[in-house]
Design goal:
single chain, 178 residues, alpha+beta, endopeptidase fold (from Nostoc punctiforme), 6-stranded antiparallel sheet
């Protein structure tokens, strides 16, 4: 009797498998076909950030100009001292010289000499990290680092400290350190 049951059971399984296979071929959904479809497990995500992509996100490297600005900004509050080129005291050209030296660029310690060593730019072509030269009837008298939105980082004059400030005059020229 057990052999008869085994054969009957085997036939039933074969028929069921054939039905499921046929249903899948014709796009008919059956409880068995649904059960065979792989389903991603639902994992609780409380406190876990969900990502929709498996591609790693790459943070772009900051531009050269923004790194120059950040380096100059790191000297915020350092006192002005005539002829000083850092790291704890600066005059205007000393701040620009020290900042660019951190990136392997050599500049002379004079605003007018620095003006002679850069690629001159129109105002519309200026970018973060470019030099801003202030001039009057006697020539170039001050240099600073362009920080965007018409602002600069500079060491203004005796009795002050390195700070960010708006450009106060239109008598300026721009240059890019090569």
């Amino acid at each position: 009797m057990s052999t008869t049951l085994s054969r009957t059971f085997a036939r039933a399984l074969t028929m069921a498998a054939a039905l499921v296979l046929a249903a899948g071929m014709f796009g008919v959904s059956t409880p068995v076909a649904r059960a065979e479809t792989p389903v991603e497990p639902q994992v609780p995500t409380r406190g876990v950030a969900r990502t929709t992509s498996t591609t790693p996100t790459v943070t772009p490297k900051p531009s050269f100009g923004s790194r120059v600005v950040a380096t100059a900004a790191s000297r915020k509050g350092k006192p002005y001292a005539y002829g000083a080129a850092g790291p704890s005291r600066f005059d205007c050209s000393g701040l620009t010289q020290w900042t660019f030296k951190k990136f392997g660029k050599r500049l002379p310690h004079s605003s007018s000499a620095q003006y002679g060593r850069v690629k001159h730019l129109r105002a519309k072509d200026r970018r973060l990290g470019d030099l801003v030269f202030f001039h009057g009837s006697g020539g170039i008298y001050h240099v600073a680092i362009y920080a965007g939105k018409n602002t600069i980082w500079h060491a203004p004059y005796s009795g002050t400290r390195v700070r960010k400030e708006r450009i106060w005059t239109s008598a300026v020229s721009y240059g890019r350190v090569r």
